[in-house]
Structure formats: structure tokens, C-alpha cells
Amino acid sequence: MASPRIWLFADVLGGFGGIETYLDALARRAYADGLDVRVAVARNGPAPFLDELKSIGIPVYDQKPVLGDRFFIRHRLLIHYVTKSLRPGDWVFCVRQPMPELYLPLVRAVHRRRGRIAASWMFSPEYLPPPPGPVGEDFRRAVAETDLVVSVSECGREQFLKVYGYEGPVAVIRYHNREFLADALPLPDGPPWNFAFLGRVEIEQKNLDTILDAFASVNRRRPDTRFNIYGGGPDIERLQAQADALGIGDAVTLYGRYDHRSDLPRILAANHVFLYASNFEGGPCFSLIELLQAGRFVIASPVGGIPDIYVDRPEAGTLVAPDREAPIAEAMAVALARLEAEMIEPAAIRRVYIENFHGEIAHAQWCEALDLNQRPVE
């Protein structure tokens, strides 16, 4: 009897953001575990990690664009490619919830082949409501017919009923992630005391304008502080203009895009405290998991799956409301005091990662939820 084949499916895929990091780590770990894992995607931009997956022996199918496609033909071709070879008991695991227009056709195509489908949500359901009209109704039907609905955070579990009317079980499975540091990084000398942001430079989600206002308030009292912003995105010029208008341009540096695989240790080693007071998020974000690995303290907001990391773990970070600068500035002042008193311990922060968010923990949860430890295909 053969083991089930597992297709890791993404109908939208960019460069190397959170979902791409998840797919990369999940594919590698499943392959290392001897599972018959394959990848099927529709890329929207360069994704060099796919070539790396191919090089270690993982089959990768990248559905090519269709010129003038206004009816999701490309994505329907992707669905056809994956489902035509499914055997009874095989899995299609969506690393992000499929687009509303495609979700129900995908679920039913999988079930026609007596396969099974799971979908993991990239944001909490409250931030992904069904669209209005028939498409939204089809989306709700697709959720109801999904074999395994996955939340990457405890915080999001109850929202599937509230937002989608879904009454079935919800599995909480942490994001797969790669351990890229063998130990916590020591804090750099200070002053200056370096606050930092790492991720997509976008105001709407990441709340960077409010965070910048908060930093300005702190920097006026403490000119020995700096704010380093790493990442690409649509709002780099807007934030630079805001920093200049606030009179803190010399204390704020926007570095732009970085190479996640080669630059990350250097960036983490150079900074003391990271700011992540987002307006909305999905699960415990990859940037935050990486900061746990490095042993870095974080000022974050209680949205999406972020509380899963920091509630009852004051050694690792603190949660603040994202809608006003004052609470963020106050948390920064408290963090400064802790730094100066040597009360932030990188090793203690890393223990939170090892004991709760390590990739091996995520993989064990994933294998159990998909019943991969004992269920062969008949």
C-alpha cells in the first residue's frame, strides 16, 4: 500500500514573503521525513526558492501565465494539473486559503478523485470575510466541504464559525519554519539604542506611520535612539518624507530590500528591540518567529495570532494597542529602561521559540492533523 501523495498548493505566490517562507520550510521538512511531497503554484513574481526545492529532488509545477486571462483560466489549469493525478487518500494542502472564485471548484475537483483537501489561512478570518453575493456563498460552501480547516493561531480558531458559519473542527497548526540560528544573538553595545522593523514596508497593514510618530516622541527625549527599517514595499518614500517632516530624518534609516537568506543574521545582530505594532496580521508572523530564534524583544500589537507568542511571556515582548502613538512610545521607553538595566535576556527569549514554535513542533502537529503517521492509501 502506498503512502499518500501530498500536493502543496498555492494559487498566488510572490517572492519570499511569509507564505513563501512557509511553503519552503514545509516542503523541505516533509521531503526530509520521506513523504511523497510535491509543489504546485501559480507564481506572480520571481521565486528562486522553487529552483532550490527542485535541486534537492522535490517535484515543482509552476503553471505559466495565460495572456489576457480574465476568468482564472491559468488557475483552473493548475487545479486540473494537480487533481488529474490524485489517488484516493491523497492530500492537497493549500498553504494559503484559495481565492474565493476558485475555492469551491478546487474542493470539488479533489473530492471527485476521492482525494482530501486542507487549507491554512494566511490571515485570521476576521480579516478575510467572504465577498458579497454568489462568490461569497460559494466560498462558505467550500469552507464547509474542506476536509481539514487550519488556523495557524489559537486566537483565530473561533472566528471560522463567526465569519464563515463553519461548525466543523479547526486544527491549530503552527507555521513550519527553518532554524537558521543555532543560538541566541548577543545584544549589541549601546548607546545608540537601535529600534527596528523588519518586513514589508506598507502603512495600511504594518502601521508604520503611527510607529514612526511614536519613535519621534521617544527620540526627542532620547536622541541616543535610532530606528532602522528593513524591507521593500510601496511606502518607503512616504515614510522617509514623514521622518524628515518630524525632524528625525537623521535618526531613521530605510534600508530597502534585503536578502532574507544572507542578510538576516546581520540585521538581527545590529538591533536591540523590534517594533511590530501592526493593524492586522495572520498567525504568529514569520518575522516574529525569527526574532524569537535570535532572542530579540518585540513591541507588538494584539492582532491576529500575535498574542499566541507574547501573552504571559513578558520576557519575549509586550503587546500595545496599535491605533495611537502614545502606548507604543510608552512601551519603547520601558524597553529602553530594561535595556539599560540589562533586563532583556536573549537566551530566555529563544527558549520561547524552542519550547513552543520550533519547526519540529509545527511538523508534528501537521503530520498528526493530516494523519500521516499511520494512514496508508488503500
Topology:
Elements: E1 5-13, H1 18-32, E2 36-43, H2 49-55, E3 60-62, H3 73-84, E4 91-94, H4 100-112, E5 116-120, H5 133-145, E6 148-151, H6 159-164, E7 170-172, E8 193-198, H7 203-206, H8 208-221, E9 225-230, H9 236-245, E10 252-256, H10 260-269, E11 273-276, H11 286-294, E12 297-300, H12 307-310, E13 317-319, H13 325-340, H14 346-356, H15 359-369
Parallel strand pairs: 1-2, 1-4, 2-3, 4-5, 5-6, 6-7, 8-9, 8-11, 9-10, 11-12, 12-13
Helix pairs in contact: 3-4, 4-5, 8-13, 11-14
Describe the 3D structure.
The structure is a single chain. With 378 residues, the chain is of the alpha/beta class. Helix content is 41%, strand content 17%. It has 15 helices and 13 strands. A seven-stranded parallel sheet has the order 3-2-1-4-5-6-7, with helices on both faces. A six-stranded parallel sheet has the order 10-9-8-11-12-13, with helices on both faces. The N and C termini lie close together (6 Å). The model has no long low-confidence stretch (mean pLDDT 93).
State the total count of DSSP E strands: 13
Provide a count of the helices. Answer: 15
The profile of the biggest β sheet is: 7 strands, parallel
Task: State the helicity in percent bands.
Answer: 40-55%
Proportion of residues in β-strands? 15-25%
How far apart the termini lie comes to 6 Å
- Specify Rg, calculated over alpha carbons: 22 Å
Q: Mean pLDDT, rounded to whole units?
A: 93
How would you classify the helix and strand content by structural class? alpha/beta
* Lateral arrangement of strands in the main beta sheet: 3-2-1-4-5-6-7
Helix and strand sequence: EHEHEHEHEHEHEEHHEHEHEHEHEHHH
Overall form = globular
